[in-house]
Amino acid sequence: MTPEEVLARLDAPLSLRRRVGYLAVGLTGLTGSGLIGLLWATEPELPTRTSVAFAALVAIGLCWAAFGGWAVTRRTPLFARDRVVAGWLGVGAWLAFSVGALVISVVRHELEPVLPGVVLVLGVLAGAHLRAARRARAALLHRRTALAATGEGG
Asked: Whole-model pTM?
């Protein structure tokens, strides 16, 4: 493959397969937040901690729905920006879960034995995904710059 062909491929918008995947992510987030919102609306006398948990879950679902919509509507190449945004959403959801679990543990004055392990594993996964996405984006941008320089000089 020539540098011009690679550069043209890098400059292409998302493939149909990725668009369908992001559409599924958006619809899943919207459906999840909608169902939780309906449950929340039909149960008026929930404890405060349950209402806060439902609000957090609705917000997380709406963030994923907005992300899916954003990725699907992009007509320009993303150079793995979509992966970086998804990584940050994952880290944010992990952080919300961790803070919520900590608050509930403090209020109840007891810590579930499995909770620290779950929080640690989820945090490592979210951080690893974000790091890999940032590296992939940097590599793509570096390769694009190098190929553009090669194409202009040749």
From this structure: 0.79
